[in-house]
Amino acid sequence: MSAMTPPDEDRALSVQTAPKSPGPGPQTGSTPLPAEPLPAEHRKLPKAAARPAPVLALLRARWPWLVIAMLVGTLLGLLMGATQTNKATAVLRLTGVNDPLRVKQVGQTYEQEAMSPPVIRLAVANPDIKGTLPEDLADRVQATWELDTDLVQITVENASGQQAVKEANAVLDAVIKKATTDRDALNRQVKEKVIARLNDPLTGSASAADAGRRDELGKGLGISELNNILDALSVTAGSRATSFIPAGASRPVAAGLGGIGGLLLGGLAALGAGAGRRRVRTPAELRALAPELTQRATTQAGEVAGRLLESGHSTLVVLSLPSTPSSASRFAAAVANHLRTHGSSVTLVNAIALESGDSSSMALPDEVWVLRRDIRQDVKSYFSTDVLVVACTAEPEAVGLISGQSDLMAVVVAKEGRSNLQQIWDTVAAVESAEPIVVLAP
Amino acid sequence: MTSVLPPSVTASVATQEVSRRPRRVTMLHPWRGPAPDPVTDPEGARALQFATVRYVAGLFGAMVLLQRFTSVVLPEVSILVALVPAWLVWGMLRGLVVVDRTRLMLWMAAAGSAALVIPAQNRFVQHPIISVTAWGLMFAVWLPAVAVLKDRRRATYVMMLRHVAWIAVALAIGCLAFIGSQLVGVPYTDYLAEAVPAPLLLQEFVITYPIVYGSDLYRANAWIGLEPSFVSMQLGLGLIAAFLSGTRLRMLVLIGAGLVAATAGSGLAIMAVAFVVMLGYPVRNNLVRYLPLAVAGVVALVVTPFGQAILSRLTEAGEEQSSTSLRGILPYTYMWPRWVYDPMAVLLGRGPGSSQKVVADSGILGLLTPTPVKIFVEYGVIVGLIVAGCLLFAYVGGPSRSLSVTMLVSLWMLQPGTTAMIAVLPLFITTTWWAPRFEPVLESDSATFAAARGWVERAGRWRPGQTVSTWRLGRRVTRNPVRSKSPIDLRRSRS
Fold first, then answer.
1. Which residues pair with A439 in a beta bridge?
2. What is the DSSP letter of A366?
3. E-only strand ranges, A249-314
4. Last residue of a domain, one of A211, A238, A273
5. Environment class of residue A305 by beta-carbon count within 10 Å: exposed (0-12), middle (13-18) or buried (19+)?
6. H-helix or E-strand containing A145?
């Protein structure tokens, strides 16, 4: 860093003046001492406090994220729904049970019965579903007693809808068959017992009472058989399965849900990422994402000049964010021209121009020291001008020289598609006392 | 730049500037920007405060009045599910409500992951039960949780609580009229059902039922209540609101009487939990003065059939088919084997709406689906945790700890309220929309009542000539200026 010297003719390339009246200004006397440069590790502006951007603006700014997430979600939904299964339902009807509590008990008993191994084994023996393994079918069968009805639904899932229909009917038939078989077995047992009883010889002498006893037993057997037959009819086919429907969510529904889920999670990512790293693309976007900023266009240099004159300040600092040196220089020159148009005499110090050949260098041009509070006054006196306009890069050294001061006006020049919002916020926060205006250059 | 004007001049300029704001906050004249500082902009702060109080209390009133109505498009869905989002949009257009970024992100995480897990359930879980409507309803009901009020000052909150208390008083009077009409011999008639076409009313609810089996006396629902338990819940909230906002004693008595007339446990449970929470805060000092009233209330309860019906609920927990068991014990024991049968069901869940379907198919009359059961059975452990986190965050940061805790206990343990807007809306009204709070919780101030009076006065409700006891709650407060450190002193300075 070279030592600071007052602006003189040797530096005329970077200093343009339009003195009101020619004549030497007051000399600054002794050469001012340069300020100590900041250590290398401090060569970053302090990070501004998080400023949450408006939610809708952020979602609008990150709309590609939302679209991509939605497409990914839809694709996932489609993949998950690729193996669409179907289900068919047959209905078992309970008859002859009048007590509501008993209906519930019988219904829930048949729920279990329909999914029990004996019934499944019986079902797979049905020629319509020949080759189906019992354990495979058992996994796909579900029976449910419908509340407040005497119906039990037997539902079977299968990738093939037609096969699901056959399997549901096979299980239905198996339940009825097993119920009938059980009743028949019970009938047989009763019959055998009665016959055994009939054949059982009386201990005393045969008499007329024996015939009466045989009549009674015969009647009892008949009634018992009749009851069992009636009981056996307590389970009938309410309706057989004839059609099938998709089980769970259908493929379009799965895709739709995936899309909605992706969209919401994409929105979550957009909100979580925040606006800080967002490169502002349009003035409207900047206005939406950071409504608290005072924003102007590069074409509004005249308005900025007017503001400066109205404010009573005599110094304007145009801070250029990275990638905007030429825009900042032009804007500073435009403001200076407007000021001259208004009759002010202006000293324009363009500290960016010297940097343009070596943009990677972090070295600060000497002209930036003009931002020192004392030198700002000296320069105006030296050139006998009313206003000092300084264009410089928004490096920490330059910003540090004007930070916390309100006797000047600051303009932060950002570039569309290049400058990110965090850079703008950091710079604006650093010179907040100067009520900065943000100019977004195209 | 430093102003050259003296501070008094600049202050008056600022006041003139803001006084141009409309006195009423409407859609045509919405409130722009954040809530104003009540010191520098008292007129603006007052306009926003009144608008906020009317807005929130109005919604509570709408909830009480419209709880039996259905959204015509979906007959089984309450009109409140459509009304509350519409109310929120109206609030946003007026500038009273904004979106809370954190809660929106949580809601997006919960709704998005729940939507994404459904295709996975379809693919990997054995016997999934999937209802897309159930998913939509759940997250539609919880969408309003993303809103936050601009004016969340304690003064505004207390004023809102007073309005809620007045609405509860009106509801309590309705309940007392309901019981009174039956006691004088007018049999119970559902006048609302006679006046309004059936398609406009929710049908799947037990509007009311006899106090005890075989009795001709029906539990009070003020004819407009969806169920005595919901009416009781609203009255319980009203009672706590009345207590916290320092209303008159007669209001508390009226609401308490309405609570007894409803003969349901939910309101009493809310009251009990709230008062237990208060015991942990300095506000407990204010409870002492109500001890005689509470004892008298309990005695009165014991000797009336209403009280006996309520007290019988306290000892029924051990019975298998009792209301308490059906809410707090049986759902867990019944659902457990129907959830863990498949490891993928545990991981991914059985599908939205599955828990209600399984409970409905159980044939156990009155079996409910508590919130934890619903969340974890339907969405599995992973997504369930996200959903639970989203829902639980809605209880955090409210201005009243007793109200937020009581809503937590009510919705997570007593009421199957996850998808019922009528159960969830009181949480939004009393807690969620007021979070994060600006000031310490209401219960941390032992002089809450005095503070409330001070706020009421500052809000312009106090009129010159009114004595201090006008705003007192059944007991004289010391006038010793040395001991009194409450904001009631502000009233003195006002005169």
1. A296, A413
2. G
3. 294-297
4. A273
5. buried
6. strand A141-145
**Whole-prediction pTM value?**
0.77
Q: Write the pLDDT tens digit of every residue in A117-155.
A: 999 999 999 888 888 888 889 888 988 888 778 889 899
Instruction: Work out the angle between the directed axes of helices A63-80 and A251-273 (0-180°, nearest 10).
Output: 150
Spell out a b/e string for B290-321, using b for 16 or more CB atoms within 10 Å of the CB, else e: beeeeeebeeebeeeebbebbeebeeeeeeee
Provide the number of structural domains found in chain A.
3
The answer to whether residue B363 neighbours chain A at the CB level (below 8 Å) is: yes
Q: Which helix (H) or strand (E) holds A92?
A: strand A86-94
Q: Which residues contact A116 (CB under 8 A, 6 or more apart)?
A: none
Answer yes or no: do A83 and B123 touch at CB < 8 A.
Answer: yes
| Cis upstream peptide for B85 (omega within 30°) | no
Helix (H, G, I), strand (E, B) or coil at B243: helix
**In this predicted complex, what is the ipTM?**
0.78
Task: Convert the pLDDT of each residue in A296-333 to its tens digit.
Answer: 888 888 888 888 888 888 888 888 888 788 888 888 88
In a domain, A60, yes or no: no
Query: How would you classify the pairing of strands A437-441 and B97-99?
Result: unpaired
What is the distance, to the nearest Å, from the Cα of residue B242 to the centroid of all Cα atoms in its chain?
Answer: 13
Q: A335 and A383 share a domain?
A: yes
Six-digit token pair at B89?
């949009």
**Same domain, yes or no: A197 and A344:** no
Residue B210 φ/ψ, nearest 5 degrees: -60, 150
Residues A305 and A333 in one domain: yes
On whether residue A1 sits in a domain, the answer given is no
Q: Is residue A324 part of a domain?
A: yes
How many Å apart are CA B108 and CA B139, to the nearest integer?
9
Q: What are the chain B neighbours of A264 within 8 Å (beta carbons)? A: 108-109, 111-112, 115
Looking at the structure, do residues A187 and A158 belong to the same domain, yes or no? yes
- Together in a domain, A318 and A371: yes
Write out the residue range of the structural domain in which residue A127 sits: 86-246
A138 touches B: beta carbon within 8 Å: no
**Which residue of chain B is at minimal alpha-carbon distance from A84?**
B123
Cβ contacts (< 8 Å) between B204 and chain A: which residues? none
Q: Do B113 and A258 touch (CB under 8 A)?
A: no
Distance from CA of B367 to the nearest CA of A (A): 13
Tell me, what DSSP letter sits at residue A247? Answer: S
If asked whether residues A231 and A297 sit together in one domain, one would say no
Which pLDDT belongs to residue B454? 61
| C-alpha triplet B68, B141, B375: angle, nearest 5° | 115
Residues A176 and A311 in one domain: no
B112–A249 C-beta distance less than 8 A: no
* Residue A157 with chain B: CB contacts under 8 Å: 127
Are A281 and A427 within one domain?
A: yes
Place of tokens 């986190």: B389
Determine, for residues A73 and B120 on separate chains, whether the beta-carbon distance falls below 8 Å: no
Helices marked H in A292-324: 301-311
- Please indicate if any CB of chain A lies within 8 Å of the CB of B196: no
Q: Classify residue A30: in a domain, yes or no.
A: yes
- The two three-digit tokens of residue B258, written as one number: 């309405």
